[in-house]
Design brief:
The chain contains 12 helices and 16 strands. It is α/β, with parallel strands linked by helices and 342 residues long. The protein has one domain (77-341): Rossmann fold. It has a 9-stranded mixed β-sheet, sandwiched between helices. Strand 14 and strand 15 (294-297) form a beta hairpin.
């Protein structure tokens, strides 16, 4: 398999997505890597991850437990720190860049901090590969639907990250730089479903911004599958976008409330928030193709595109306003979280 014998570096490896990626790597979903390094700045989260494998083998898949003891390593560092990034990539074959500031309101109040992590962190990664001569084969940048037609700082910084990594294919032609872009990961830290579950468990009220708001919803497993699909098949400069369902946030709240006497309060749109999210814009849809279960946005830079003609897979933007997850289907998608509200 494609990661057999490879050394994989996961920046932001203790986050919701990063942790799930690490677990899938340990399980051998893409082969057995020679090494997996979690690079992050939070020593407490690293220690918690280490202990979760070390102290609870009975609750851990045997393959995951064995591999966590043999090939998993931890490295304290921050993507903002060029020297730390350069040292971390020296012995990496594949880099999954999941380090990010991703809370929309926080980025609005601290835009320079978002730039330092989301933009300069990506730039440090490219510079480190270019200047060190490290033989990194693939870099996958984790982006977001908010990078498409961005109206908030988080989306703007992620859009710049996408462009920095795409252009890096020209600077570092021996390394393949690609991105993945997707919407709200249902169970990720800070996402709406865990917030609703907590509010409902305490008797409410459940807070939503507006009744019109919609979001793409996908599981952490699907998010990880998208990363692995990009590693497997993406060409330099491409962005992988999963085909996923979209739902009204008020429907999500009402499904989790499940008929109980719990109030829903409307709080208004937060700073930098969109009513609908977009994963492929009108401009991008004309250079978007279909590949398996994914839309693939071809790079803007003509130097990175194949010369072969292609048929666009979309004729308009790919937006969460086209709601396709309601009723029983939405209930099924949220079933793993409903028990926690009781």
């Amino acid at each position: 398999m494609i990661l057999d014998g490879k050394r994989v570096l996961v920046t932001g490896g203790t986050g919701s997505l990063g942790g799930k990626v690490v677990r899938a790597l340990l399980r051998g979903d893409m082969g057995r890597p020679a090494g997996i390094t979690v690079f992050s700045r939070d020593e407490a989260k690293q220690n918690d991850m280490r202990l979760s494998f070390l102290n609870n083998p009975a609750a851990t898949d045997e393959v995951i437990y064995t591999n966590s003891q043999q090939i998993l390593n931890f490295r304290i560092g921050d993507v903002r720190d060029y020297a730390a990034v350069r040292a971390a990539i020296e012995h990496a074959d594949v880099v999954i860049n999941a380090a990010a500031l991703k809370q929309v309101p926080s980025c609005e109040y601290f835009p320079v901090e978002a730039v330092q992590t989301n933009v300069m962190g990506a730039a440090n990664l490219v510079r480190a590969i270019r200047e060190s001569g490290a033989r990194v084969e693939t870099v996958v940048g984790i982006s977001t639907d908010k990078a498409c037609k961005p109206v908030n700082v988080m989306g703007m910084t992620k859009a710049l990250m996408e462009r920095i990594l795409a252009e890096a294919n020209l600077e570092c032609p021996s390394t393949r730089f690609v991105c993945v872009r997707y919407g709200n990961v249902i169970a990720s830290r800070g996402s709406v479903v865990p917030l609703f579950v907590e509010q409902i468990a305490h008797g409410g009220p459940v807070t939503i911004t507006t009744e019109e708001m919609t979001r793409f919803l996908l599981s952490l497993d699907r998010a990880v599958e998208t990363v692995f699909a990009a590693i497997q098949s993406a060409r330099p400069g491409e962005t992988y976008v999963p085909r996923v369902a979209a739902a009204r946030i008020v429907d999500v709240a009402q499904t989790l409330i499940d008929g109980r006497e719990i109030r829903i309060d409307l709080t208004g749109v937060r700073p930098g928030e969109k009513t609908h999210e977009i994963m492929v814009s009108e401009e991008e849809c004309h250079r978007t193709i279909s590949r398996g279960d994914y839309y693939v946005i071809l790079p803007m830079l003509p130097e990175l595109r194949a010369k072969d003609p292609f048929a666009p897979a979309l004729t308009t933007e790919y937006s969460s306003s086209a709601v396709n997850l309601e009723g029983a289907a939405l209930r099924d998608a949220l079933a793993p979280f409903m028990a926690a509200t009781r």
